[in-house]
Amino acid sequence: MNDIALFYPEIFLAIMGFVVLAVGIPIRKYTVTSAITFATLIVAIIIMAVTPHSSAYGITVNRFSEYFAIVLLISALFISLPVSKYLGKRSEIFYSALIFSSLGMIIVAETWNLIIAFVAFESVSIMTYVMSAYGGKQRNLEATVKYFFTGTIATTFIILGVAFYYFSVGTFTLSTLNTMQTATKPTMLLALLFLLIGFGFKLAIFPMHQWAIDAYDGTENDVSAFLSTGTKIMAFVIVLKIFLVGFSAYTAPVYYFFVILSVLTMTYANVAALSQNNVKRLLAYSSVAQAGYLILVLAVVSYIGIGNKPGIVDLAIASGMFYSLVYIFMKGGSFLAMNMVKQDNVTFDAISGLGKRSPYVAASFSILLLSLAGIPLTGGFLAKYFLFLSVIEGGLWWLAVIAILNSAISVFYYMKVMRYLFWEEPKGEFSTDDGNKAAVIISAAIVVFLGVFYVIFPTLINISSQIVG
Amino acid sequence: MLAFDILIISIIFGIAAFFTGRYAKETASILSGVLLILIAAFSIMRFSSYSRGFVSQYSITISNSIGLYFSVGVSGLTDALLILTGIVMLIAILITDREYGSTFFGLEMLVEVGLIGLLISRDFLFFYIFWELVLVPVYFMIGRYGRDNKDSISLKFFVYTHIGSVFILLSIFTLYSYSITYLGYYTFEIGPLMGIVHSLPAFELGFVLFGFFFGFLVKMPSFPIHSWLPDSYYSAPYPATVILAGAISMMGGYGLFGILMEAYSAIPLWVLYFLAALGIISIIYFALTAMFQRNIKKMMAFASASAMGFVTLSFAASLIESAGSYYSVKLIEASGGMFQIVAHGLIMALVFSALYYISRNTKTDSVYGLGGIYREAPMLSSFALIGFLASLGLPGFAGFIGEFSIVVGVFQAISWYIFFVIFGMIITASYHIWTAQRSLYGPYNESLGFIRDVRAGEFLILIFLVLVIFLFGIYPNLIFHNLVNYANSIFGVIS
After folding, report:
1. Considering CB atoms only, which of B63, B125, B162 is closest to A408?
2. B48-93 pLDDT tens trace
3. Nearest Cβ partner of B170 from A377, A404, A455?
4. What's the ipTM?
């Protein structure tokens, strides 16, 4: 019965999900449900941190899965922050959906079993469909329909991929041992292709990214923050496990697919972002580009092979882990900064002159943008620094050159936003609420903290070897 | 340890300067003055007697396993450039318009933090962080307070120089990834990493050298990669122009002499000849371009780039001499180049400050808009004239020492091609004299009306610069012997 301790976070979240639903019926004050959700997620993070490390029933808690579970719970926290734009306007169903989706996310982080991962993944997707449609406006619904249909198609691909994987390996468990024995089956290639397409949709990498632009733009700001951080990092975790551990005997096709996709994603997204005149769409393209940087980790590690050169592989995976953490704050904070604008369609004119109205928020937002661009003293710089370092250490010079030039191009559009923030006269109306401001300022403070204190990264290098489960 | 303390103090000052409100100018002036005094005291304590290699070394361990340290060290070159930084930043702050508000002064102090940091870092990670840190405040200065088309110009400045920086970053990564092979441990420290450059495989060697040269030459700026220069210098407000000309271009020179020179034996000869050619082309091309400018600020921007051509040339020539069988004048050569960086920064600070007062008092800075202002403002035009004369390399001023030692040394390396350098110097002299004659003397342009001359405080700023330039011109040994010692410690020659 000791195994039950492994499931405390999941059990706690499941109970609280129902509690929030139940509380919402008699108490019609939605601020209460929001507060309960916030507290629940905080407590879940604490429980997660003290959960014993062991493995049972397809769930493995080790330092790797624990790290990602906490990172994903933090991304869910963003949506339950007491931001006045939405506070009190959402019923308990929304918050319960959030809790259930964080339940799914931590299961994804903790499992090395494909079918469990698939079910948890799908539960998160369904909950996010509910959340993104919740605004009820025309543009929310339109975005949700696009998100829903592409999401369903992706699910189909994933389940086909899982089936082919089972067909060729004979188990759903992802482990470096299984694939070694059956390395020559051609159906593995089909499984690889289907899984890549399916998770590529969720990760929003190049040919499968178009839904993300519309969905992030069309949904409400905190939901876009969640979609672009939480679900993306979740997809990243599962992609890391599947393609690095599950396909560890198939490194060559994994390498080619991810190198090509990464280059295309970065380049396309950065070029497309240059011509945007809507800030949320610009941020959406930038998050597609960030996914392009993230999957560089897969390219490098599969180029080397997970068993070879442990130092470099650990460095690469650790840089991906650090990037995920920083990415959550910089991207989530940026989308929450859109709350300062009262209108839904955030054009450049809408944000212009924010620096004159609330200078601290504008300064924090620009710190987040500088972090996305990878300028020193921000977490984004260190994340990119270690990522590109591992790419070069892995021997892929040309890839690092492409990535770093892309990073330089991206400065153009981030600076463009900053120009509007500071040097244009205010045109639209801005929110004056402290809750809206605090979210952005805190994110910026954390991003700077991550960029100035270097101690976190060396710890991650020790953790990263536990990716094999 | 002392140098590290200066950095910490400058960081505190830099943050404090943002919150000074109405008294921003006074506070920032005092703070940067204190920094200059600290730097001067440090130099006297550490460099008044003979010293070789790095002093004031200090290191903080961040992570042993991946080789993260924050190490600090000061060489003779670094010390000279620290003094330059202190003076240029003080001048830039003193000539800043009070109207700009505390943000502008805070940004200026932040530039000073970045410059001090990158000069004293002996660790590539922190070197790069400070290197990039300098760009951000300058971007805001140009973009917020500049003139004409400032939006696109500030963006061009940032992206252009940022692309230069990321190539440096790629080189750093490559060196880091080879440190385990050649040193047996991972490290970012500049000294050991530059020591392994010569043993790199051919492709990686080319990759590393290209990255460094590209990044440093963009900052200089050198001939084919200079197109950010005229726009940025012209559009920036005058204090930012002083910073650009005095301090940002210094970064390129420091990169060559402070970083790359430690790997001098690894650089192939043809690269050096190519670099020397770039230097000569820079001198002539920028001088010719400057001749056709009708705006004095733009003209001086090109003059500054032309003077930095001497630095590139001297770097290349001193390394050619150390590789070939030439008579060993490489010490003079290299020290002259380093001296030229300092002299150029000081002279440009004088030229642009004088130009700032002229354009503020007359509302114009074009050659034809001015004319004969000596009649109305004799003191101011005399200072401008001194600036022009120093800039063209007249004996007695600091610029002459640098250019003279460079030309003497370069002749050994490239023989009769020296003709081109002399040709460039003649053009330089001609357009400086022409500008002085046309704008400062000659018939007075009556449409300007009454022009106010410099006030007492402004006089002190300008006379301080003139005295420093003059001091370095007649007694260069104040810093020259340190530069020679530094070059000596690199080349390992006892002279």
Report:
1. B162
2. 776 677 777 788 887 777 778 888 888 888 888 999 999 999 999 9
3. A404
4. 0.79
B177 closest CB neighbour out of A393, A407, A457: A393
Reduced to 3 states (helix: H, G, I; strand: E, B; else coil), residue B40 is helix
| Of B63, B139, B166, Cβ closest to residue A404 | B166
Q: What is the DSSP letter of B3?
A: H
Model confidence at A368, pLDDT cuts 50, 70, 90, reads very high
Q: pLDDT tens digits for B80-127?
A: 899 999 999 999 999 988 888 888 888 899 999 999 999 999 888 889
Burial B463-483 (b: 16+ CB within 10 A, else e): eebbebbbebbeebeebbbbb
Residue B492 scores a pLDDT above 80: no
A375 interface with B at CB cutoff 8 Å: yes
Q: How many helices (DSSP H) and strands (DSSP E) are in chain B?
A: 19, 2
Output the pTM of the full model. 0.86
Contacts with A411 from chain B: Cβ below 8 Å: 158-159, 162
Return the number of CB contacts < 8 Å for A and B.
Answer: 79
Residue B177: list chain A partners with CB under 8 A.
389, 392-393
Q: What's the gap in Å between the CA of A461 and the closest CA on chain B?
A: 9
Chain B positions contacting chain A at CB under 8 Å are 62-63, 65-66, 68, 125, 128-130, 132-133, 136, 139-140, 143-144, 151, 155, 158-159, 162-163, 166-167, 169-170, 173-174, 176-177, 180, 207
